User: Fold these one by one.
Assistant:
Number 1:
Amino acid sequence: MTSYTSVTHIYVVSHVVDVITPPELPEQLSRAELLNKSFVGKNYAELDSNEDEMRDSAAIVLCECDEQGTEPNEAIMEVDDTQDPEIGSRDVFSSFVKLVVDDDDPLYTDVPKPRKDKSERKPYPTPMKELIRRAKEEKQLRKLQPCRVLEDTPDNGLLVPELVDVAYSVHRCRNSLLSGLSKIIHHVPVHRCRLCSEVHIGKGGHEIRTCTGPGSGSRSATHVWKRGRASDVVLFPKCFHLYDRAVKPRVIHDERFTVPKISAVLELCIQAGVDLEKFPSKRRSKPVYSIEGRIVDFEDVNGENSEIAVTSTTTLLQEDDYCTEEKKKSLKELSIETMESWFEMVSGVRKLMERYKVWTCGYCPEIQVGPKGHKVRMCKATKHQMRDGMHAWQEATIDDVVGPNYVWHVRDPTDGSVLDNSLKRFYGKAPAVVEMCVQGGAPVPDQYKSMMRLDVVYPQRDEVDLVA
């Protein structure tokens, strides 16, 4: 560590400012240095060494670097230009200011970018320290109580009562979404690349060179388009269906062909309380026991309740489908309803994922709904040889369960112009479902206006070199 008794070098973006620190700087402030822009160019000897006054006049705060793992001279600071309007150094500091965008702002979302290095592991949604703390608490609890009744739902095999209606709502919205997309696709064309997973909504494909399929180097990464389907618009990754998520939460390698694979959203709804005759699931009325980490069920099997639930659920779903089919709607109304189903489904899946665990591989798109990931050795991503083909399971996010499938935004579908590769930095993006519904007549959602870059004026092709 460098000594900071006489001169402190503060790095702001790419410039260096030398500031003379007072000798009477309080010891507790040596690790969180405070500086006011109005004092730049003045002698610190003129300032009062009062600790409280220095805190009140401070505009730049460098937090303790040990918490972030960086050296003090590597910190990037944010400058407040509203402190002293009479100081002539405003123009000097204006070039140093780093604009910080709040990622939590729902009204601003930048255009998503693909991962630079797909060989790297996906980021953990929950910090590793928190995961280690939970594992230690669980291990300590097993030592204190080797035989105990699991009380937390749904880990004890019981349903979460307040999420049963949410599961039915998600299942209904999923069916409505797929039904709406299958009708809108007759009016809004969908194209997909033959060699990669790129999807484009609009007449003809775009000319943006982003193909990563076989032979893309010889084609200068140009896409080879074909007619797409409704299943190309929204991505529903599949996972293994679990009959008993509490006692048998894992599918082994030898069962990979006997256990059916269904959509992860559908499996999440089934485990949350939706009863389907085609995919049965065991329901309990009493919690299971944990004996030295092993789950044991002492409840007698009673199949009458499950049969009644399946019959009533199937009847409700048939009535729901009948009501939606007898109404004929215009393209705009259908697009608005489909977009509402999309947002309601995503919101419901988020609520279900807060209580029901969903796992994804850290290197490939494989996903599994349940207490644990499966043991099928079929991972072909980075470092799979070290794991003997086993997946590197970690906590999944909403994008892993419901793939947004971002596509380029076409501002005027009736124009007939094709998106140019030289202008791709001016184009926006949106989820394929949102883009398809917007072209069908639905209004643009507020959370995707910035991502679509509706306020950007496209230059002409001959004006690209003139734009900074």
Note: The longest strand covers residues 7-12.
Number 2:
Amino acid sequence: MPRRRGRLVLLTGLALVGCGPEVPHGGVVKSAADADKPNEEVSSKQRRPPTPLDLIPGDLDVVVRVDLSKVRDSLGGDASELLLARAADVASTAGLVRKALAQAEVVWLGMRMADVEHGDRVMVVRSIKQRGHQEPVVAPDPIAWTKESTAFGDITRYLAKSPPTRDGTERIFTFDDRTAIFVSPVESYSVERVLERGPDADRGQPAAKGLVSIDYRTGKLSAAHENAYPSLAALVAGVVRVRATVDVVADQLELDARIRCKTNTAAAKVSRFLETIVGATARRPRYADLLKELKIERSESVVTIAWPLPRAVVAALLVDSTGPVPPPSPLPVAP
């Protein structure tokens, strides 16, 4: 798997807290046969038809929303094309995904931070509204896909006839001509469960604003990462949730992030960790000016970050970010 996938996470600000928990993929999974034959009876708890975002299950601990129309307007074509390429790389694929992304207006990508390199994900794509006849965002070939109805008349399911790779697409759900959901194999049962029983209460819900928004529910690191980076593991253990947006403010872009911690003490550790990272990075001439306006503040158990940047700088960072992402340094955490 290409290592540059990690760069997508870095660019959205999530490398700050490393990896998420290792959890059973898709919850308690039925047998393969049962998973391929989901129960279409709608639970009485399902009061309304699900929205596309309802199908992103709670076991995916990071959800990123990218408004590609705003990215094109604010950062230019090169940056938007790069983000499209990165999203297609995470989805590892395939003509259908690439075609959908090429005409996308907004994309939501749900992933699991602990094993983002494996490609487990649910991707929601909403295409640009067209004048006159609306071309479908996706049109699966009946030779390769089996079309099925669901308990909701407006939602159609497509099943891959050939088993895909883990980072491929096993199921596609369409809500209308503008909206399609691409589901990797490991997440198939979770999505079917949500379709049948209703949305998970703890699902990721990034803010519906800005060029990019993120909702990351942190947790315990994997055993391997805990052993390799004990100070980082201690930091992550004290964080509950990271929510961030990147939006246009005046004539520049601004990152606005809130890190909610379990305790005031945990928040103080996160604040000191960030200040250490920023201080060390600012000593490099290339980054000194970029970090000059970055502000880190703490109020009880919440740490906030505000970072204004010129649009040209952000676009340049995106275009220049093709190299691999180095692992985080095991910096000490103050007691």
Note: DSSP finds eleven helices and twelve strands in the chain.
